[in-house]
Predict the structure.
Amino acid sequence: MGLPVLLAGLFLWWASYFTTIVIWEFRKILSWLAVPLLGVVAVIAVWLLVKRLRGKGHDARRSGGGGAAVALGWLCGVLGLGVTIWWLVYGAYLQDREYMRDVRIVAEAVPELSARAPYVVGTAQAAPHLGDVTGEISDITYLPDSDRFATLVERRGWLSGYEVGLVQDIPLGGNSRTQERCSFDVDVADARIGGWFNHNLGRKISAQKRWLRFDAGDAYVTCSGGTPTVVVPLKRQTGTLVVTERPAGLALYDGRTGRLTITTDTAAVPGPSYPLSLAARQREGTAAVGSFSDWWFERSGWDESEDGANEGNESEFTLKYRDTSGRSAYVTPLTPQGEASSVVAVSTVPTRHQGAGLAPMTVHRLTPTWSSPKALVALIKAEYRDVCCYNDDRVFELVPTGGSTWTATVGSEQNIRYRVEGRGQVDGREATCLKAADGALIRCAYAAPGSPEERELQRREEEKKQKPENPAAPGDLTGYTPDQLADLQRRVSEEMLRRLKG
């Protein structure tokens, strides 16, 4: 018996990736089944006691002791089933409560955030800039530090890794569209997330450090001096009866040498180091902000908005703060649970976080609130019909940009032409202004009182009033009589006819 056990132990130690997955999933299952298993043990113990009591003899049965024991057994069985169902429900509530332990709910305005090109535009412009690359795009991530979009391309084939990384500049305003393409050494750096056998990047991570896992959607690529680096934010598990996840540093995979480094020093990485999936899980945990009954009947907390321009990308927008700190955050517009679809709050989670605990999450209550994204898209199309929406133009991402303001971009996937900025519902209507892609004010459907847009429009009106009126000025037709205008039209028509004949 000793040799098989030894061989099994050596296999489990060698199969670090397999054992990591098994232990990871086993801990999650055990957290849900621990209390029900204790209930089963209690029921079995009662059943054994009942069996013992029933077997004591004819006198015990005749006196009714056996019937009482059977009733007690049924009662324990029903109670055990009830405890099982209760824990499966209440355990989920405790898990949400654990994730929202560091959540702050404030009435303060959202810090000023910088608008960026929509994620859909970054996705659409990746493929045309890949050139002769034959691989398939596996991930596109916005890097707030450099205000660029990073694209990770997988090489075709079962036993292969990544082919190239593409980092491109897609400015919201302006014509600069720089890009950098860095190629992987496919002979040395031949691993990727989800690869086969030794070409699996997750297997390499587990071989270097066990019990850590990651979400594939959290990984991204950066380019530095022509060298691609795959950045994988890692997570660990904590807890026994209530198992939750925590950040556990980064795995850095060098696309030139194939070297893998696991580190907790995230300062030098030019992108998000806090797992986006973990930030999303914290946001979902806000459903438990109230009591258990409020959580069960969905009377507390918030959801991400799921209608309008943000379809397919409703939450965790990576945005950079406008100050000079260089900080950035995952930002999500929130709607109350239920049928209401107006945006009443905005959540922020930093994209960088030091330490092994959850990053602090802040929920900012909006004053004033917004209409739903779907209603705002319809409002933009109605108030700015001359610029939206023709041919392939449409309204893209409606994202928070600080205070109670939001920004929506208007244009096509290849050319962003305008942006519309709003300040929520003021005096019963949405305050919106149309601006050029670079932020220059064009006009407002309704400028909020006291806003910078209102002051700018008043300044323009004052300048217009100060200009002297000159009806006879060249090109000004306001001073012409109807007869003079008719004569001018006749002469223009005659001149056009003469030129056409010539």
